[in-house]
Amino acid sequence: MGVSCELGFLNMAAPLSVEVEFGGGAELLFDGVKKHQVTLPGQEEPWDIRNLLVWIKKNLLKERPELFIQGDSVRPGILVLINDADWELLGELDYQLQDQDSILFISTLHGG
Amino acid sequence: MCEVGEDYRESAPGGPPLTRPGREQKCVKCKEGPPVVVIRAGDAFCRDCFKVFYVHKFRAMLGKNRLIFPGEKVLLAWSGGPSSSSMVWQVLEGLSRDSAKRLRFVPGVIYVDEGAACGRSPEDRARTLVEVEQVLQRVGFPSHVIALEEVFGLPPSVLRCFAQEPESVGTEGAYKAAVDSFLQQQCVLGAAGEEPWSQPRPQGPQSLAGPPTAVQTEALSRLFDSVKTLTAKEELLQTLRTHLILHVARTHGYSKVMAGDSCTRLAVKLMTSLALGRGAFLAWDTGFSDERHGDVVVVRPMREHTLKEVAFYNRLFAVPSVFTPAVDTKAPEKASIHRLMEAFLLRLQAQFPSTVSTVYRTSEKLVKAPRDGCAASPPGPRCLLCLCTLDVDSADSATAFGAQTSSHLCQMQAPGPQAEAGTPTTLCCCPGLGGAQGCCSSPPWTPCRLTSWPRPSSAARGPGASRRSKRICWGTAMMRRCPVGAEVRALGPHPTRNRQARTGRQGQAGCLWLSTCINKNVLIRKLYSTHGAGRAGPLAVCGAGQRRAPQGRLAGAAVLRQAGGAAASLPTAQ
């Protein structure tokens, strides 16, 4: 068990299944779809929010990426909740995703 | 695959311990529960403590101001957005039997369908209305669902100034009297055991009239299409919405209107208002209570809640809300002054977490001081549209923008066939059309007739039109003068992004000014020294202390002038 655990960690992070949700008008940039059940492919470095944002930009975001992502983070005014808790409590961009996590992005900007 | 996933999860806590610093943390209030939300830097609250904190803030805001009397009819302005939804929910919970200190007023909800202004299709609007109905049914208050088109049906009396000012003296006594009489009534009615607002529950929502006709929808969308800048559109929409809500409040006997502006929104509004030349009315536009309408008072009980708190509360406690696209949905950051200011503040907030609260506290300190020497005299003329005391009056306008604005109008008058056809104006509903056509002719009152400036031709016709021109406040006049897109385009790169750009070039001066004004003390001083000195305007906003206040509109003018780089568009240019 210990060996497999180490091997798994060293070689490749396993694919993760996470729920990504958008609210407060942010969903408009994603074809109006609020909930996305996604599977993140296995990769060498572990999945964190920073990687997830890049992945979202590439795979989910349909238009105007600048309205959702600025720099390597979300646009100021968009809140991030990880399993219904403030991401500030969990290390923000450095939070390492776990399987079955739910990540929620809520826009508090006027007009979404 | 399943196994690997499990292995990974087991290895995580041992591997990177740094990724979860917050999990060991406890709630700052109860020291027990796991924290879920960070409110101020370092203050993490657990779910239950957050709820207590949130509800208390709402109650305290109503309690300390003592403006809403027991038994009074209060109209909740609900847009479907997070803050107003949260407000309606707070009222609902506050009125329920088991709440500790029960609220005792009689609520109603109004929803204004602004679809036509945003160019939404009838199907989209119908779909939204279904959602709205569902939420309203859950809430169970008497409700009024009104389409924005109905502004065309408003009687002219909405623009009349309701002269009687609510008595500020003796409020305390009046409140006590109201409480006493309410308690007596309760004793009489006590046996009935009915909620006061559940008795007259009508079947379905009430409306001033039926659904809007296609003609009205078209007229409204034409009005909004004719508005060239997004900034002016947002201002126009807000003005029309306010008139409509106030009208409904009056016709149904509500004496208070609750608006759901949050702290974040008010901070943005404060900065926006400054830039729009509405500095003189900041205390009305952003304060807890807004008595400018006389008989109906607008209150803002959500003004202590930040949007982050609101969003978390709504999520954690499943407060239903309805998302509706607004005029600025999907607009780029620099599309309007409102958007720019929002982005500016939120970006600063991301770096300096007390930005919003600092700006907001500034708004709290503004007082509605009467003009020097005018305290005892009857209130002066008001702006036709925003109903604020006019800041472009004729009395001492020799030194003020008022004179320049009105004289500029005269200078603008270029007689000729073009003038006869009506100059394309930002706020008029029918640019390029003859004055007698289009929605301008629709009776009895159309907003566009007021939002349009006297045309050269009409000004030449008689004194009435120029009198009307003098009845629009400076900020509203500014809106009209904004050239297409010039307002934001030339503001240049965001100051927090591009330090280099802060210096030198004129285009950035607006941003420079804004960024240096964030600190509230600097805000007052800076405004005064840079833009106010030597230009004593007729109306001033007083700061908390002795300090004479900023000439907000002057400063706003400077921003716009520098921002536009198009000085020709401003009254002072000539």
TrEMBL record, chain A:
<keyword id="KW-1017">Isopeptide bond</keyword>
<dbReference type="GO" id="GO:0032447">
    <property type="term" value="P:protein urmylation"/>
</dbReference>
<keyword id="KW-0819">tRNA processing</keyword>
<comment type="function">
    <text>Acts as a sulfur carrier required for 2-thiolation of mcm(5)S(2)U at tRNA wobble positions of cytosolic tRNA(Lys), tRNA(Glu) and tRNA(Gln). Serves as sulfur donor in tRNA 2-thiolation reaction by being thiocarboxylated (-COSH) at its C-terminus by MOCS3. The sulfur is then transferred to tRNA to form 2-thiolation of mcm(5)S(2)U. Also acts as a ubiquitin-like protein (UBL) that is covalently conjugated via an isopeptide bond to lysine residues of target proteins such as MOCS3, ATPBD3, CTU2, USP15 and CAS.</text>
</comment>
<feature type="cross-link" description="Glycyl lysine isopeptide (Gly-Lys) (interchain with K-? in acceptor proteins)">
    <location>
        <position position="112"/>
    </location>
</feature>
<dbReference type="InterPro" id="IPR012675">
    <property type="entry name" value="Beta-grasp_dom_sf"/>
</dbReference>
<dbReference type="InterPro" id="IPR015221">
    <property type="entry name" value="Urm1"/>
</dbReference>
<protein>
    <recommendedName>
        <fullName>Ubiquitin-related modifier 1</fullName>
    </recommendedName>
</protein>
<dbReference type="Pfam" id="PF09138">
    <property type="entry name" value="Urm1"/>
</dbReference>
<comment type="pathway">
    <text>tRNA modification; 5-methoxycarbonylmethyl-2-thiouridine-tRNA biosynthesis.</text>
</comment>
<comment type="similarity">
    <text>Belongs to the URM1 family.</text>
</comment>
<dbReference type="GO" id="GO:0005829">
    <property type="term" value="C:cytosol"/>
</dbReference>
<keyword id="KW-0963">Cytoplasm</keyword>
<feature type="modified residue" description="1-thioglycine">
    <location>
        <position position="112"/>
    </location>
</feature>
<comment type="subunit">
    <text>Component of a complex at least composed of URM1, CTU2/NCS2 and CTU1/ATPBD3.</text>
</comment>
<keyword id="KW-0833">Ubl conjugation pathway</keyword>
<dbReference type="GO" id="GO:0002098">
    <property type="term" value="P:tRNA wobble uridine modification"/>
</dbReference>
<dbReference type="InterPro" id="IPR016155">
    <property type="entry name" value="Mopterin_synth/thiamin_S_b"/>
</dbReference>
<dbReference type="GO" id="GO:0034227">
    <property type="term" value="P:tRNA thio-modification"/>
</dbReference>
From TrEMBL, chain B:
<comment type="pathway">
    <text>tRNA modification; 5-methoxycarbonylmethyl-2-thiouridine-tRNA biosynthesis.</text>
</comment>
<protein>
    <recommendedName>
        <fullName>Cytoplasmic tRNA 2-thiolation protein 2</fullName>
    </recommendedName>
</protein>
<feature type="region of interest" description="Disordered">
    <location>
        <begin position="1"/>
        <end position="20"/>
    </location>
</feature>
<comment type="function">
    <text>Plays a central role in 2-thiolation of mcm(5)S(2)U at tRNA wobble positions of tRNA(Lys), tRNA(Glu) and tRNA(Gln). May act by forming a heterodimer with CTU1/ATPBD3 that ligates sulfur from thiocarboxylated URM1 onto the uridine of tRNAs at wobble position.</text>
</comment>
<dbReference type="InterPro" id="IPR014729">
    <property type="entry name" value="Rossmann-like_a/b/a_fold"/>
</dbReference>
<dbReference type="GO" id="GO:0005829">
    <property type="term" value="C:cytosol"/>
</dbReference>
<dbReference type="GO" id="GO:0000049">
    <property type="term" value="F:tRNA binding"/>
</dbReference>
<dbReference type="Pfam" id="PF10288">
    <property type="entry name" value="CTU2"/>
</dbReference>
<comment type="similarity">
    <text>Belongs to the CTU2/NCS2 family.</text>
</comment>
<dbReference type="GO" id="GO:0002143">
    <property type="term" value="P:tRNA wobble position uridine thiolation"/>
</dbReference>
<dbReference type="GO" id="GO:0032447">
    <property type="term" value="P:protein urmylation"/>
</dbReference>
<comment type="subunit">
    <text>Component of a complex at least composed of URM1, CTU2/NCS2 and CTU1/ATPBD3.</text>
</comment>
<keyword id="KW-0963">Cytoplasm</keyword>
<keyword id="KW-0819">tRNA processing</keyword>
<dbReference type="InterPro" id="IPR019407">
    <property type="entry name" value="CTU2"/>
</dbReference>
<dbReference type="GO" id="GO:0016779">
    <property type="term" value="F:nucleotidyltransferase activity"/>
</dbReference>
<dbReference type="GO" id="GO:0016783">
    <property type="term" value="F:sulfurtransferase activity"/>
</dbReference>
<feature type="compositionally biased region" description="Basic and acidic residues">
    <location>
        <begin position="1"/>
        <end position="10"/>
    </location>
</feature>
